[in-house]
Write a structure and sequence with these properties.
The protein has about 400 residues and is mainly alpha-helical. It contains 12 helices and 9 strands. It has one domain: Alpha/alpha barrel (Glycosyltransferase), CATH 1.50.10.10. It binds glycine.
């Protein structure tokens, strides 16, 4: 009888503990998603009229909002966030706004002068098609993938990131620059093969991922930002940075694109080399001596001013989202998920999350665009918000 009582008490305690845990986690995710709904709802009101919409990108030094024109690499993130909030809430108002903002960048399907068309179209049109199955969105994605593959060179085995005939890129002596960020554009190519059955897009995506695997990474699995190739021979000419502290440093957002990119490549290909790469990058990040206690990275792992330098909430959001997906494939999944939860809790705390109605209605504060360019330092960024919301939804879906 006594034994039975102890057993029943144990069961009761276990069920109380597990209820408490579940409630805490659900509250934390929903609290942040509901906050995002409120901020972004105010943002939509401020950024649109009946006949015109313009996506917010960041805050300018004078405190005003900087908007993203369609050809801006960040133009897909705000429409993408609206689709993610539709995914979360199921409410038509989000679907209608998401559709309006998405259609406002349709011209990107024909953009051929930089590589970011993958980011731009996949976050906006990609989520649109995923959630609605409307063929219009799919057709735009296929057209955009056709534009992106015009930048592919079989001699190099990559799509070219930046043209070198204009802007600051023209001053660096590069021939065929490929940046680690470009891994993110491959998702559009994988989707295009799934839509059309044409393996051209898939083959280009894996060639790009394999060439990047070979040349972008150091022995410790940190990565360079820019690899400049000889456009005729495909030889590596330079290993450089553009947005990091130094050529040999580990720029935090670059590492974020790398872990997200290889995790996504594994999703489409099931190639164990990509899974291994993502796990190796995770080890570089999570075991790094400069990985901070709150799990929100400094803007560059090698800035000698650490800890007295900037954090990059955007890198934190991207890494959190990647780790949650990686946790579903990897043997060490539980530890990746735990690290991501800690990151998201930090990002959702007053240290990084704005107060309601402040921060130009962006969700997160404290991101960094490009310190070497003196641009967007310690500001909100639309992609920090996008990947924060995506990470929260991914975590919610794990349940
Ligand atoms: N793709 C540009 C950046 O991460 O800043």
């Amino acid at each position: 009888m006594k034994k039975r009582l102890v057993y029943l008490c144990g069961l009761f305690l276990m069920s109380v503990c597990s209820c408490t845990n579940t409630t805490t986690k659900v509250d934390f995710i929903d609290d942040n998603l509901q906050f995002a709904e409120k901020q972004i709802s105010a943002s939509v009101t401020g950024c649109s009229s009946e006949d015109k919409v313009t996506s917010p990108r960041t805050t300018l030094p004078d405190g005003s909002i900087k908007y993203a024109v369609p050809e801006d690499w960040t133009s897909g993130f705000f429409p993408g966030s609206l689709w993610l909030l539709y995914d979360y809430s199921g409410e038509e108002k989000w679907k209608n706004e998401a559709d309006r903002f998405t259609r406002s960048i349709e011209e990107v399907k024909d953009l051929k002068w930089h590589h970011d068309v993958g980011f731009m179209i996949n976050c906006s049109y990609g989520n649109a098609y995923r959630l609605t199955k409307n063929e219009y969105y799919k057709d735009v994605m296929i057209q955009a993938a056709n534009s992106l593959i015009t930048r592919y060179s079989p001699a190099v085995g990559c799509t070219k990131s930046w043209n070198v005939d204009r802007g600051w890129q023209a001053e660096r002596g590069w021939s065929y620059p490929v940046i680690i960020d470009n891994m993110m554009n491959l998702e559009l190519l994988f989707n295009a093969t799934e839509f059309t059955g044409d393996s051209t897009y898939y083959d280009i995506a894996i060639a790009h991922a394999n060439t990047t695997l070979e040349n972008h990474f150091r022995d410790d699995y940190s990565c360079y930002h820019v690899i400049d190739y000889d456009s005729i021979t495909g030889e590596v000419r330079h290993k450089h940075t553009a947005q990091g502290y130094a050529h040999e440093s580990a720029w935090a957002r670059g590492q974020a694109w790398a872990i997200y990119g290889y995790t996504m490549c594994y999703r489409f290909t099931k190639d164990p080399a990509y899974l291994k790469q993502a796990e190796n990058i995770a080890a570089f990040l999570l075991n790094n001596k400069n990985w901070p206690a709150d799990n929100v990275p400094y803007w560059d792992f090698n800035d000698p001013k650490i800890p007295n330098t900037y954090r990059d909430a955007s890198a934190g959001s991207i890494i959190a989202s990647a780790l949650i997906e990686l946790s579903t494939y990897a043997n060490d999944g539980a530890s990746y998920k735990a690290a991501a939860v800690k990151m998201l809790k930090s990002l959702g705390s007053p240290a990084y999350r704005a107060k309601l109605g402040e921060n130009n209605n962006f969700v997160l504060m404290h991101s960094v665009g490009s310190i070497p360019h003196g641009a967007e330092i310690d500001v909100p960024l639309n992609y920090a918000d996008y990947y924060f919301i995506e990470a929260l939804l991914r975590l919610k879906a794990l349940k």
